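Need tokens for this chain, all 369 residues.
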Amino acid sequence: MDAIEHTRSGLRYESFEGAALDTWLGRVLGLEHVPLAPGFEHYDCRNNRLALIALTQDGFEDAVRRASGRYGAQRVAVILGTSTSGIRETELLYQRRNGGALPATTGFYRHRHNLFALPEFVRDYLGLGGLAQAISTACSSSAKAFASAHRSISAGLCDAAVVGGVDTLCFTTLFGFRSLGLLAPCPCRPWAADRNGISVGEAGGFALMERAGEGVVVLEGYGESSDAYHMSAPHPEGASVALAMQQALDRADCAPADVDYINLHGTGTPANDRAEDLAVCRVFGPDVLCSATKGLTGHALGAAGILEAVICMLALEHGLLPGTANTTARDPALAANLLLEPRRRALGRAVTNSFGFGGSNCSLVFARP
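Here are the structure tokens for all 369 residues:
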């Protein structure tokens, strides 16, 4: 909260594993040296280490334990999003190859690289036995985890769910974004007139969803859409993005005027911000307060959804709207009501947007109980 209140960015100009990328990263310091608990060493990879750090924050383990006691371990699901899971371990495996055969990898793919490695590790670590699901829809992955958990609880498949996601830095994404010309050589500046790309970050986060409980916030609605307009570019008019936001409002049974704040997907690329601005103004008009927080954290890819959902929850709980870090002069061609500086204001309802490559979109509506 202190970083949000004072708009203190975690982005740093640095290399990753010696790769010179001429960009700023949101890297979690010291993650290379985090040990997994005894008995879980077979899950050891950068992604699961970050998952462990996130699981041990804010009394989350105790909250899950209480839910498991109320409903039974078989009735608590684990539904998590990630875009690359532990692929960094596979990259390192090939680096150690030195032109020869790969070393023995018994169980390696399942517990470290496989997309399902994350929910399996979390389920095992928390001692749960219910439904487990991995969602990998690029940058909307961990936002879609909320929607999937809502459906699973409503269908009676579980009574509670650990939702969220984890994504960590790896060469696959870093060099991939560089090849697309999307890495900014400075901290990303969403909605700025001179915005020029993204800053990649890594993050892990979890939330506990229950059928009925003493929650800080309520997930009132969700909307999902897919336009498949292009592999890496958004629909220029933001048509499918607008559809996801309208679906979320419809499920929440609320009007656009009932929303007090929108956490924008706000990547800092010219095309993405322009398309999202058109969609937001089409659905909400130009007055609702918005901000983009990736200038604080970097774009956490498959974990962006949970990261920004948590920021919305904190905004609702504390009445603090984040500013848009690094952006000093907004693009005059964009019409959304962007906050450059944090603002104190009581909130009743907030929306968060997460949009992924291939046109995979998700919008969530959270409210105070």
